[in-house]
């Protein structure tokens, strides 16, 4: 049994008959969604869009109540994204199913150490949540009890060395050519470094924003 991510590019390269999995229209939708998320992160987190780059992995997740086959399937443990994916500075999730109707359990939980409490986000079709990827945002996902929970994770880096190109038909996975400028203006602190201030709310505040979530209408204008 394969215990790693399935790299769609490599799957298509090794078996050309799989090229029909996606169409160019699918990639157009993905790029439009990615660009809207990037612009919104730039606005709410106070980062210049030119300092944000798509990074890998960007992946779909499918969570059910099935027993975990490997340790990596145990998504319900607390973790910090940047400890797993060193390139991440901002993590975003676009939810593709709705809590309470498509599945039960499966809420996204921030384990807020400073508040000494948990903050829950209920997934909803079209809802996007975004947060800085360091230790200030330790989190986990509740175990799914019934149904199937789908989401796509779209991650961004401030380091051009870790930038990847947008997907398109006939495109092999590659890193974007590094720009001459390596300015990291606007990047969040590295894990375990002290924060300048802490946002207690999910929504944007006058202080440094660490977490942000939309209603379900955010992405509909892009997809429809």
Automatic annotation (TrEMBL):
Signal peptide positions are none
Sections of the chain in a coiled coil: none
Q: What cofactors are annotated for this protein?
A: L-ascorbate
Q: Which UniProt keywords apply?
A: Dioxygenase, Iron, Metal-binding, Oxidoreductase
GO CC term (a single one): membrane
One family from Pfam that matches here is 2OG-FeII_Oxy_3
Q: Which PROSITE patterns match?
A: FE2OG_OXY (PS51471)
Domain Fe2OG dioxygenase, residue spans: 58-159
InterPro entries in the cross-refs: OGFOD3, Oxoglu/Fe-dep_dioxygenase_dom, Pro_4_hyd_alph, Pro_4_hyd_alph_FE2OG_OXY
Q: What is this protein called?
A: Fe2OG dioxygenase domain-containing protein
Native source organism of the sequence: Medioppia subpectinata
| Lineage of source species | Eukaryota, Metazoa, Ecdysozoa, Arthropoda, Chelicerata
